[in-house]
Write a structure and sequence with these properties.
about 50% helix; alpha/beta; seven-stranded mixed sheet; 2 domains; Endonuclease, Chain A; 434 Repressor (Amino-terminal Domain)
């Protein structure tokens, strides 16, 4: 049974705590500045108080010396907190917007992560070349692509932490066959997935062609908190914690898992497709060299 504090409240509390620690303030010192007790501020930081008023957030951040734009951002986020509503939306930013920041926060505290991805390789498994090829056509003019790539690479460190969570990736075969950038990029990407599939806490299962289950989603299971569902789209990331929504996606995940290849057969298919991408690339290079020699 999960505790009553919502996932969004925990996230807001963690963000507030970072500002307090950056200011070098203890809970007692901050309490004296804002006129609240240390236990009350502690409950705010760990998300046990549920929602927080905008005034509380402003007072807290001003006392910590936060920049005006940080105050604005967290005030907007505090408006999203409503456990009764059961969802909240985080927008994509230039390089590490609210949606990615929120995703990293929950990934770092999850016990089990289960995901389904029908179109592309999941972000946690992407190589740098594959990641960059996906980002380049979709970045806003003037955006810092390298910072965006670096933020996503650092996010992958969650997979290798001590006491890391268990990750299960259900990936449609279509994502393995779709060429992103070029065949060489795909061959390297699939070989990287084979390495990751050997990690004790990572399981990759491939959903065969001919199966369809809608769009991608992730399910975060916690030891002490309610299960959370994450949906990503071009606008931002949508988090769901309403029981009905969570049960619906859990049901879909069971259906996906029922038809997915087991871990061993999935590794064999990934290896075969990596070889296929590599052979096609080599053949193309050979053809190009012959054409050059004939000129």
């Amino acid at each position: 049974m999960g505790l009553k504090n919502g996932a969004a409240s925990r996230e807001l509390g963690a963000l507030l705590r970072k500002h307090r620690e950056a200011a070098g303030l203890t809970l007692i010192q901050l309490g004296e500045l804002v006129g609240r007790s240390a236990p009350s501020l502690f409950r705010l930081e760990v998300g046990e108080r549920g929602s927080s008023t905008e005034v509380e957030v402003v007072h807290y951040l001003v006392a910590c010396g936060a920049a005006f734009q940080d105050v604005q951002r967290l005030v907007r986020f505090s408006r999203e907190l409503s456990d009764e509503r059961g969802y909240w939306l985080c927008s994509h930013g230039e390089w590490m917007g609210d949606s990615l920041r929120s995703l990293v926060f929950h990934e770092s505290s999850v016990a089990r992560s289960l995901s389904y991805e029908p179109e592309v390789i999941p972000g946690m498994l992407q190589t740098e070349a594959y990641m960059r090829a996906l980002l380049l056509p979709n970045v806003a003019p003037g955006a810092d692509v390298e910072r965006s790539v670096q933020a996503r690479i650092e996010r992958q460190c969650t997979l290798f932490r001590r006491n890391a969570a268990k990750f299960t990736f259900l990936v449609h075969e279509r994502a393995l066959r779709t060429v992103v950038n070029d065949r060489r990029t795909m061959a390297e990407q699939l070989l990287a997935m084979l390495f990751l599939a050997d990690q004790w806490n990572i399981k990759i299962r491939i959903v065969p062609e001919g199966q369809s289950f809608g769009g991608s989603f992730r399910i975060f299971e916690f030891d002490r908190f309610k299960t959370l569902v994450y949906l990503d789209n071009h606008v931002g990331g949508l988090f769901l914690q309403d029981k009905t929504h969570v049960e619906s996606y859990t049901s879909v995940l069971r259906r996906v898992a029922a038809v997915a290849l087991d871990a061993q057969d999935s590794r064999m298919l990934i290896a075969d497709l990596a070889g296929e991408h590599d052979r096609v690339e080599d053949c193309r290079n050979d053809t190009g060299r012959v054409a050059q020699e004939q000129l």
